[in-house]
Amino acid sequence: xxxxxxxxxxxxxxxxxxxxxxxxxxxxxxxxxxxxxxxxxxxxxxxxxxxxxxxxxxxxxxxxxxxxxxxxxxxxxxxxxxxxxxxxxxxxxxxxxxxxxxxxxxxxxxxxxxxxxxxxxxxxxxxxxxxxxxxxxxxxxxxxxxxxxxxxxxxxxxxxxxxxxxxxxxxxxxxxxxxxxxxxxxxxxxxxxxxxxxxxxxxxxxxxxxxxxxxxxxxxxxxxxxxxxxxxxxxxxxxxxxxxxxxxxxxxxxxxxxxxxxxxxxxxxxxxxxxxxxxxxxxxxxxxxxxxxxxxxxxxxxxxxxxxxxxxxxxxxxxxxxxxxxxxxxxxxxxxxxxxxxxxxxxxxxxxxxxxxxxxxxxxxxxxxxxxxxxxxxxxxxxxxxxxxxxxxxxxxxxxxxxxxxxxxxxxxxxxxxxxxxxxxxxxxxxxxxxxxxxxxxxxxxxxxxxxxxxxxxxxxxxxxxxxxxxxxxxxxxxx
Length: 480
Ligand code: TXE
Fold this sequence. Notes:
The protein is an alpha/beta fold. It folds into 2 domains: 2-249 and 456-479, Aldehyde Dehydrogenase, Chain A, domain 1; 253-445, Aldehyde Dehydrogenase, Chain A, domain 2. It is built from 15 helices and 25 strands. It has helices spanning 40-59, 61-78, 80-91, 95-116, 152-165, 180-186, 206-215, 228-238, 263-275, 292-307, 327-342, 379-382, 398-406, 421-430, 463-469, and strands spanning 2-4, 6-8, 11-13, 20-25, 30-36, 124-127, 131-139, 142-146, 169-173, 199-201, 219-225, 244-248, 253-257, 285-291, 346-349, 353-354, 365-366, 369-372, 389-395, 410-411, 413-417, 435-438, 453-454, 457-458, 471-479. A hairpin with a 2-residue loop joins strand 2 (6-8) and strand 3 (11-13). The termini are far apart. Bound molecules: ligand TXE. Ligand TXE binds next to helix 7 and helix 8. Residues 146-150, 173, 175-176, 206-207, 210-211, 214, 225-227, 230, 233-234, 248-251, 282, 384, 386, 412, 452, 457 line the site of ligand TXE.
């Protein structure tokens, strides 16, 4: 039974209170590790270590910080298989997905920001012969990074990489549901040459540890990814303290498919955008809207492919879906399937828990589920389910599609399938989401602004957006 420790001031330590939280492996439902159950005392120690480390970390310069992050990236990549297996065991996702997506992206996050910081420019504004202005962009100091359980190391590093590259010191809290790969990475920091206190990882429960980070007066900015309700709670605490906030929250993303689409591409990609990572990606498309002339043909072909998906052992290369992340989340997703039936939905496939045998019989598996016959305003189509459950419905006009697509409290991502370029531009401009994919899904350029509008969040991550978030802009005006 592995003990998952905090990283504070360069040391791997248990929580001050020496209490622990069980960590489960979703594939069997069994406890397989225990997690430091930290509290405000551990956060205080981490903040003090970060404050103490800050001057030297800034003084190391962009090149010096870049080299540390590049070494950390190389160390993770060297142990890619170990990280992939750890991620799969902790989260329940197929190991081939962790090997192909999660861990390579964590490496890419470090490499991207380790090089982006070298080219992070600022601007000057010359006022003829009066004065010259330049924008000084300096690191903020100690910042807080709080991340969710669906893409554990991928999203954890998506936050800490720009924060560190920009010269800040970090107090980070991964999700208590999937802490293992952050711990595995913590054990590499010293070898990467990261000075003690630059990165501190305090594990534990959100309301206890997350709140302690959010409300700590020395923590100047909060970068959060997680549920919308939690984002509201973080904003409630941080806003009166005038902290910078980046909130990446939930989604209820539409997939709008016109009859003139490339049908094979749309079918193949929509299976992925619906069920990759067991549908536990905030960018997944959970509401499929198909232009009526194509509706039945698409629906039948789509359902046939979904039925062919294998739900199985995450270690098995043949498994398309693994387990959902926790028993509580499984119950939540199953309750939404019951709700869909109550609201008049017809379950075309899936719709139930999958019971595997042997050691996997206690695991938390749900069959990929497609539901039709629901209108856009029902709860099933308004609320985030965040599991392997999608609805499908026809539309007649572009306006119908836009009204349905935009008709939720969320605005994170949208997917659009059409061969008409003018329509693609027209629809993309009107879709209320921070990201619009046209004839594709999950193609990600890390330079682009990433984030949502409405209840999907505030602010943007990625590229220069992230580096500007993690620096303070000061205008210096010098008289000529
Ligand atoms: O979120 P939670 P979850 C969304 C996704 C889904 C949710 C799933 O759509 O809705 O996140 O992740 C900590 N103060 N996105 O259930 O509960 C908690 O310990 C401070 C959107 O994990 O919000 C964990 O570390 N922290 C996203 C983290 O917050 C608190 C991509 C997230 O937990 C806290 C991924 C509190 N009061 C998931 N309570 C996107 N838009 O990119 C909990 N936490």
